[in-house]
Write a structure and sequence with these properties.
By secondary structure, the protein is of the alpha/beta class. The protein contains eleven helices and five strands; from the N terminus they run H-E-H-E-H-E-H-H-E-H-H-H-H-E-H-H. The longest helix is centred in the N-terminal third of the chain and has 29 residues.
């Protein structure tokens, strides 16, 4: 989800900034090590009773599922598109991508990625996601994926479009929808038979609710993680409440747009609220930033995707 600088040597100012971030994270991490032990024993966030996966209170009713005889439940190759979630940013080390722990294409036995569960060899997977990517970048990622003619493409993107410096800078829903539709058209021009699995944008408000009163999470978020939702995490005034409500509503609108566009494509399957409705716990988040999925969170995403992709019918 994190926005990233373009590849290449970073400017000196960026290097100094990253150094400061590393120092701040290091202090937070020392405290995290102690607190996470408490969490694992039933501390804040560790004992939440999850909603049923795939059930979101905000999801609109889905069309009656119909048989999908053309859906491939055992694809032999996979290209993953998206942002830092699919790159497993902060899952293994501080301020770094950890693609081996990616829910989609990772090789880590701990995560047991979608590719591993489907029996797809590493040589037939391509992780084309980029940390910091917005939906506007998805058509370019789809163009790269199409050159491989993968049997399956996974899409998980949209959190960065909502996680902006201010609410007014969130990506408009119409632009979000148009860019996603263009990405599918781009893929289809070269690889018309590729199956596409679309995961929804996670519930950012749930993440705020989980960590707002946690002494480490609230401090780490001050470094600039998803400021539209997590900025002023401890504030409860009317303005802060309204701001978070607007971000949550935008995420729901993004998910509705993803579903709407996907349903018009014969070879696209949407998760129907499974990722947005999943209630991540503290132990499933990165110990570095309390925002991105850690290894256990990546494992949960892989489980959800595998269940959806190997089902004979699309989710109800």
């Amino acid at each position: 989800m994190r926005e990233n600088a373009p590849s290449g040597r970073p400017p000196a100012g960026r290097t100094r900034h990253r150094g400061l971030l590393r120092a701040a994270y290091a202090v937070a991490a020392a405290t995290v090590a102690v607190i996470l032990f408490a969490v694992s024993c039933g501390g804040p966030g560790g004992g939440d009773a999850p909603r049923p996966r795939g059930a979101s209170p905000d999801a609109r009713p889905s069309p009656t599922p119909t048989p999908s005889p053309s859906w491939d439940t055992a694809p032999g190759s996979l290209a993953a598109l998206g942002d830092s979630i699919t790159r497993a940013f902060d899952a293994c080390s501080l301020l770094e991508d950890c693609p081996e722990s990616s829910w989609a294409t990772g090789t880590s036995p701990e995560v047991d990625s979608l590719a591993r569960r489907l029996g797809i060899p590493a040589g037939a997977t391509w992780n084309l996601a980029r940390s910091g990517a917005l939906m506007a970048e998805l058509p370019a990622q789809a163009r790269r994926a199409a050159t491989h003619r993968p049997e399956l493409v996974t899409v998980l993107i949209g959190a960065n479009d909502a996680c902006r410096p201010a609410v007014g800078r969130m990506t408009p829903v119409a632009e979000f929808r148009a860019d996603f539709a263009e990405a599918l058209r781009t893929l289809r021009r070269t690889s018309p038979e590729t199956r596409v699995y679309v995961a929804g944008v996670p519930d950012l408000e749930r993440l705020w609710s989980l960590g707002r009163s946690h002494p480490v999470a609230a401090q780490v978020w001050k470094l600039g993680i998803c400021p539209s939702m997590l900025g002023g995490a401890e504030a409860s005034d009317a303005a802060a409440t309204e701001r978070r409500a607007k971000v949550a509503a935008r995420v729901r609108a993004y998910n509705a747009a993803l579903r709407e566009v996907c349903e018009r494509d014969a070879h696209c399957r949407h998760d129907d609220g499974a990722v947005h409705g999943y209630r991540f716990t503290a132990r499933e988040l990165s110990a570095w930033d309390w925002f991105h999925p850690g290894p256990e969170g990546q494992r949960r995403l892989a489980e959800i995707a595998h269940r959806q992709i190997t089902a004979e019918r699309p989710p109800a």
